[in-house]
Design goal:
Helices cover about 40% and strands about 20% of the residues. By secondary structure, the chain is α+β, with helices and mostly antiparallel strands. Helix 1 runs antiparallel to helix 2 and helix 2 runs antiparallel to helix 3.
Length: about 150
């Protein structure tokens, strides 16, 4: 094993360690190119040939993977904070809500920021009508209605 083979072996290990240390694909293409360059280094000592093989394989691996990853990313469901799961549930106002301002409500044991079209004093019973990001849109519930 020549010096150039050792360099490519170290490069493979370095790219794989970098890949393992991140949560995104950042260097796997270079690891693939370095593996091919390592294999080629057993057959030729020409560093130019080895580097060209490294560059070509890395570029082709990246060119193949990017469209596949792009289509996968579009199919993934967006990560949400769970606010939409509260729609239709009932709770209580913890901090008074004035029209145009944000207050606080408790729904299913969780505290949320909330807004409403009408003023809702502390202690009012509410129902979640919608969610706007992490802010619940709530409306008043009649006191004689049972809460869920």
């Amino acid at each position: 094993m020549g010096f150039d083979s050792i360099v490519w072996l170290v490069a493979v290990a370095g790219f794989l360690l970098l890949e393992a240390a991140t949560t995104a694909l950042v260097s796997i293409w270079f690891a693939a190119g370095a593996v091919v360059a390592l294999i080629i280094s057993f057959f030729t000592r020409s560093i130019v040939v080895q580097f060209v093989a490294f560059a070509l394989v890395s570029a082709v691996a990246l060119a193949i993977a990017l469209p596949l990853l792009g289509s996968y990313r579009k199919r993934k469901a967006p990560i949400t904070n769970g606010a939409l799961l509260s729609v239709g549930k009932r709770g209580i106002v913890l901090q008074a809500i004035l029209p145009g301002e944000v207050g606080r409500v408790r729904v299913d044991g969780l505290d949320w920021q909330a807004r409403a079209d009408t003023a809702l004093p502390k202690g009012s019973r509410i129902e979640v009508a919608d969610a706007d990001g992490a802010v619940l849109v709530v409306c008043a519930v009649e006191e004689n209605e049972t809460t869920a």
